[in-house]
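Sharing a chain and its predicted structure for anyone who wants a worked example. Both blocks are below, sequence first, tokens second.
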Amino acid sequence: MYRIDRKWPVLVTGATGYVAGWLIKRLLESGVTVHATVRDLREQDKLNALNQIARTAPGTLRYFQANLLDDGSYAEAMQGCRVVFHTASPFRLLVSDPQSELIAPAVQGTRNVLSQATLTPSVQRVVLTSSCAAIYGDNADLLNLEHGMVTEEIWNHSSSLEHNPYSYSKTEAEKEAWRIAEAQQQWALVVINPSLVMGPAVTSDITSESFHIIRQMGDGSMKAGVPDWGVGVVDVRDVAEAHLSAAYTAHARGRYIISGCNTTLLEMTRQLLPKYGKHYPLPKRVLPKWLVWLFGPLLNPAMTRKSIAQNVGYAWKGNNTKSIGELGLKYRPLSVTMNDFFAQLIETGKLER
């Protein structure tokens, strides 16, 4: 098990994010001083959940304003930090201008944060939140891989500005990170590549794409059924743990696929049936692919006919053995993740019975 060094402050970018919330919670509970960057310090209501954690935790929380697109805006926040956790990056599937809404903030943001790390003598390690989306684009891509499984050696070659622009943004941002890392000798880069992140948030004001998926499972949007879509799923709390281990495990190197299980959309909803099946219109069957192809884009503009053709009916398999062996991760079962997440939606009034 890794040992957290409490002497040095750490920087967490995108502090109000889904993964960042749990990461900051764990750091503060471990007694670390956290320099947390947010886009706008005037939006104090977004900081309520983190402030509440900081009130009782032994660690110290300090806020800094920084923007992914502003060169040098992370300089003050990074001063004296030994570890930089770069979690800030847009996660939106439906965008009107992929270049300005996804690619620029992801790539330029990574460039700004990592270039600043090179200019900050105290920084020894950068932990980057990437994604399995930087490893593969569509489930059909897995047919060309050994054992039909994604591993850390693979890169996404099928996504572009026109097809899967979110995945393309993650791929380009991670490639930029490795370019910058290899051009210097001061700090080591460790990259976290989670699959679909699910599970309860530290704040009741949940805005991640994962939240929209689980809410649609419970609000009747999917009651007719779900596409036969293979996915990897990981608990947000396990993703936070992976970041900590990546920061404080001396031998951590390279990329790590962080994924708890290989599953499907239907299998995800099945975890909720025993407890919630009677009171919520949860989907209980798979929709035929032709039906999804015909109506999917009309019901969900983020779902294109090409993505349906390349993903529906294909399994997803990810190899998480490196994360278990080197980072010591123990993954929560899918049923725990799904039920804890669904319970939070009900408790916070996001889902009516």
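Comments welcome. The CA atoms of residues 242 and 329 lie 7 Å apart.
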